[in-house]
């Protein structure tokens, strides 16, 4: 069994963003030399997500508006977590809806995707450097 | 390390449905000959889910009503994604709540389930043929 | 390839709780002797979750209030599932928001975590003994 590990780093200047990280994950897979196996991609931070969906700006706008409706950022005192001095209580909730991680099959050396699947980093509390882990195991 | 790959195909005539796919995943596992490992089951489409829960029609009715409350289908112009000509903006949101994939342990040649766990395909934008990927790795 | 399996048992006296299970998962990993691989941790029951987030009591209060807002427990007859004689319809919905499972990378014999990642068991229908599965594969 082979394994391969990479960290991807991001710095979103604003609070929230969705970034297509498929090319970076494909590059990690190519570097791994793994042909058959599983590829885990997870946010290493608890106010961010990794998820798979469509690379369509209108959809990303819809996600943004919907998540803000489900878990509004303001007023920040609505979240007890923010009594710690943080203002990111909403980000911990939004991340649960969108998920921490994806596991993607590796087949014949490629990410085994359906026609529209793309991997995204979802940032809900930006303004600093944060990481995504790529771990691939297989042969 | 062994690996095994299968696609399961579905055609839901209406817009939404939940289909128990546990027997098909068990058949894929039997065909694989894998005794110990991990089994990934994921929707290959971004308006569908794979999830694990109970095979109880009342619960499926509750999921349907709850998801429609969280992310209503109509009016379709509430979603910017639908400006592309689609009417499935809601399906992309519902799929995030229910999830893209499950990873199930394989132990002694069987899906290592608790007493009520069953795997479902959740369709949120039917009317055409769509796929689920089963990828099993192990020994 | 090596594999290792453990069950963790919990008995939450009340209806709901969040329990940090990171030490038990780390102990399972140490017992496995696996240095590189993937660690699956999943609820074996369909009214419970395993998820990764922050070990901060204010945040757990926020999750509790938010999930109760998204999928209220009462009145229990709001859920068709409860016509079966259960009163846990809400728990099946809450579990979908928080997720069934996490997959954690194993690197150099350790759970490959970001700075604040901790694994939690989320109970939404307590009052009886329930299980979490830990399955680790790798070398």
Largest beta sheet of chain A, briefly? Answer: 5 strands, antiparallel
CATH topology of chain A: Jelly Rolls
Shape of chain A: elongated
Strands of chain A, count: 8
The CATH superfamily of chain A bears the name: YjbQ-like
What count of helical segments of chain A does DSSP give?
3
Largest interface by Cβ-Cβ < 8 Å: A-B, 33 and 32 residues
Q: Look at the structure and give the CATH class of chain A.
A: Mainly Beta
Mean pLDDT of chain A: 98
Give the low-pLDDT segments of chain A. Answer: none
- How big a fraction of the residues of chain A is strand? 35-45%
**Which oligomeric state applies?**
homotrimer
Q: Tell me roughly what share of residues is in helical segments of chain A.
A: 25-40%
Structural domains of chain A: how many: 1
Describe the structure.
The structure is a homotrimer of 139-residue chains. With 139 residues, the first copy, chain A, is of the alpha+beta class. The first copy, chain A, has one domain (2-138): Jelly Rolls (Sandwich), CATH 2.60.120. Chain A is 25% helix and 37% strand. Chain B binds chain C through residues 1, 36-38, 51-54, 56, 58-59, 61-63, 66, 70, 97-99, 102-105, 107, 112-117, 137-139, and chain C through 1, 3, 5, 38, 40, 42-46, 70-71, 79-84, 89, 92-93, 95-97, 99-101, 103, 131, 133, 135, 137.
């Amino acid at each position: 069994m082979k394994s391969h590990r990479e960290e991807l780093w991001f710095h979103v200047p604003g609070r929230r963003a969705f970034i297509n990280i498929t090319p970076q994950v494909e590059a990690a897979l190519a570097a791994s030399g793994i042909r058959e196996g599983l590829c885990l991609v997870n946010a290493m931070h608890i106010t961010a997500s990794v998820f798979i969906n469509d690379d369509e700006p209108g959809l990303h706008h819809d996600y943004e508006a919907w998540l803000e409706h489900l878990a509004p950022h303001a007023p920040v005192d609505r979240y007890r977590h923010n009594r710690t001095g943080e203002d990111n209580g909403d980000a911990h909730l939004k991340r649960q809806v969108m998920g921490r991680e994806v596991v993607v099959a590796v087949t014949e050396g490629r990410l085994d995707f359906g026609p529209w699947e793309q991997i995204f980093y979802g940032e809900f509390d930006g303004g600093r450097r944060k990481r995504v882990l790529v771990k691939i195991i297989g042969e």
